[in-house]
Automatic annotation (TrEMBL):
Belongs to the Tom22 family. It holds the Pfam family Tom22. The keyword Transmembrane helix applies. This is Mitochondrial import receptor subunit TOM9-2. The keyword Transport applies. The chain crosses the membrane at residues 56-73. It is a single-pass membrane protein. It is found in: Mitochondrion outer membrane. Its main location: mitochondrion. GO terms for biological process: intracellular protein transport. GO terms for cellular component: mitochondrial outer membrane. Keywords: Membrane, Mitochondrion, Mitochondrion outer membrane, Protein transport, Receptor, Translocation, Transmembrane, Transmembrane helix, Transport. CDD domains: TOM22 (cd22884).
């Protein structure tokens, strides 16, 4: 038991203090910095696109609710009224109105 001071685990060899790690060299490269810049720009564009798409969906949804839904309800009422008149005419034996 050569080292009594350490408890369990695996010890890594000591690195010389004057050498820089490969990870540090890669993270400082121009390719990585350009990649980070491109990722930031892509995130900005995606955020803007998502926001404008959300606004357009809100406008379309409210327009549909205000203009189209009442029209659909009124057309359904008219159809029910026509069906009722047709049913009454057939029961009474009178010709159906045109």
């Amino acid at each position: 038991m050569a080292s009594q001071g350490r408890r369990g685990g695996v010890s890594l060899p000591d690195r010389p203090s004057n050498s820089t790690s490969i990870l540090a060299k890669i993270s400082r490269s121009s390719l990585v910095s350009r990649g980070k810049e491109a990722a930031g720009d892509a995130a900005f564009v995606a955020k803007k696109l998502l926001r404008s798409t959300g606004k357009a969906a809100w406008i379309a949804g409210t327009t549909f609710l205000v203009l189209v839904v009442p029209l659909i309800v009124e057309m359904d009422r008219e159809q029910q009224l026509n069906d009722l008149e047709l049913q009454q005419a057939s029961l009474l034996g009178t010709p159906a109105p045109k």
